[in-house]
Amino acid sequence: MAQNTTHMRQWFEGIRDERVTHANTATRIGQAFLMLLNYLLDPDTPFLRKDQEDQTNYLLRLVAGAYIGESGQIRLNPDGSITCQSINVLGSAIFNELVFNHQNVLEGDTFFTDKGIIEEVEYLGDGQYRLTMRKEYENDQITFHAYDVLRCAMNNLDVGRTYKTSWMRVDSVDLNANTMNVTLYDGEDVPGGVNYAPEPAARLIRWGNQADSSRQQVFFISSVDGSFLFLQGVTQPIVDDTNYSAFVGLPPDLECLRNLPINTRQAYMFARGLIVQDIIKIDYLGNPEYTARDCGTWQSDRQYIHGYDDVAKGYFSDRVWWGGCLWQAAVALPTIGREPRYNNADWVCLMGGMNMSMDIVSSAGDYFHAGKPWQTTLVASLWNAEMQISEAEIGRSNITWQRMSGDVQSDIAWNIQHAAGTQGLQLALDSTVDVPFPWEAGCEVSFQCDIYLPEHQQHYSTQYSILM
């Protein structure tokens, strides 16, 4: 082609420099144009053509980029980037950096273990196959070992997105030939009861190993089961309860979990061991669950809590013993120095609070003579275990005194004068006013104190009787 170019140049220059009159005839000029046209139509001409398929043996520089295809979706950009709708890689793809613009979605099961891709399958007979493995890069080698248990899930590429699974054991590995001999497991030895032969382009993963304990573990994420699973001690395709070393997510059907009060549609974390610094328990609404902490006898100078303890690193509800009762903190920081007792909203009584008792004592003793005037004061006491409840804590409106003497009309009149709220825990009595007339030997009169505790919605009462 270089000679043709030189020849054409000499021919054209000859026409240009011709000085003889009528030497450049139409025939000579026409031959020059035909020579140029043949050159342009020659497939070996070093110019890109626009009217037919073309190629060049020289470097093509597209400084401003290029659009490829009628849709224009494939673009070679001046900055070195490529923009396209999709990429179909028949071999392997090597990326120095892989960036997902929105989200990365993994379907099926994702394993973290040894893997390989089958290039060719050769049946050797008796359930044995020779597998030629694909090299994903120049120095790629098989990482499987002898006695590895291999799992291979092959997509059927149908509308139902079904797949079949092949299970096999590695018998030998030839690194130089990049092949390995495997034996297919029988159907009764694999999950589902049916095993399938391996196929080219299928991806193998190491599930376990029959002999090497260091290769008997596999960690994988299952979108089908909805969990992260870590198996150990795997020596065969079918695993049992002992192989589940840990899982996070929906619990598998394990014998050790069947009697536990768990919801199989809720996520849990399971492991043989637990190393942790802080454990914070919450309920199904996300509220923290408090751990009861017995702090012994209540101390007036100590700050108790119902909340998070920065030192102990957890949520605690302090409990104390006081006045024969067990109390639990009901607010974040109960007031220091204010003892736990009835009507102290900082505390709630857990034991002894419902063990209320009452008594009445007379200030003038318990003996009175008939026909002789006397005065005394009856003092009623309400006890919460060993703690006496004060009148202020009860509230005078919750205290009622009643008289019972057998003189019904007189008792009604007396009771109206001593209705709830008119008298406290102390009742002053005068025999000339507060007992029926006449006061004679053999007469009996009783005075009853009734107390109502709104917090407990309970009534408590006791009587004091005078017998002549």
How is this structure best described in words?
- This protein is mainly beta and 468 residues long.
- The protein folds into 4 domains: 1-84, no CATH class; 109-271; 291-351, no CATH class; 357-467.
- The protein has helices spanning 2-17, 26-41, 391-394, 408-417, 431-434; strands at residues 66-68, 74-76, 82-83, 109-112, 115-125, 128-133, 148-155, 163-174, 179-184, 203-209, 218-222, 227-231, 244-249, 268-271, 291-297, 306-309, 314-322, 325-329, 347-351, 356-362, 375-384, 387-389, 399-404, 426-430, 444-453, 458-467.
- Strands 5-6-9-8-7-10 form a 6-stranded antiparallel beta barrel.
- Strand 11 and strand 12 (227-231) form a beta hairpin.
- Helix 1 (2-17) packs antiparallel against helix 2 (26-41).
- The N and C termini lie far apart (150 Å).
- 16% of the residues are buried.
Largest sheet, described in full? 6 strands, antiparallel, barrel
- Return the average pLDDT rounded to an integer: 86
Approximately what portion of the residues adopt beta-strand conformation?
25-35%
Total strand segments: 26
Helix % is 10-25%
First-residue to last-residue Cα separation: 150 Å
Specify the overall morphology: elongated
Instruction: Describe the strand arrangement of the main beta sheet, using strand numbers.
Output: 5-6-9-8-7-10
Short description:
The chain has 468 residues and is mainly β. The chain contains five helices and 26 strands.
Helix and strand topology:
Blueprint lengths: L1 H16 L8 H16 L24 E3 L5 E3 L5 E2 L25 E4 L2 E11 L2 E6 L14 E8 L7 E12 L4 E6 L18 E7 L8 E5 L4 E5 L12 E6 L18 E4 L19 E7 L8 E4 L4 E9 L2 E5 L17 E5 L4 E7 L12 E10 L2 E3 L1 H4 L4 E6 L3 H10 L8 E5 H4 L9 E10 L4 E10 L1
Parallel strand pairs: 15-17
Antiparallel strand pairs: 1-2, 2-3, 4-11, 5-6, 5-10, 6-9, 7-8, 7-10, 8-9, 11-12, 12-13, 13-14, 16-17, 17-18, 18-19, 20-21, 21-22, 21-24, 23-25, 25-26
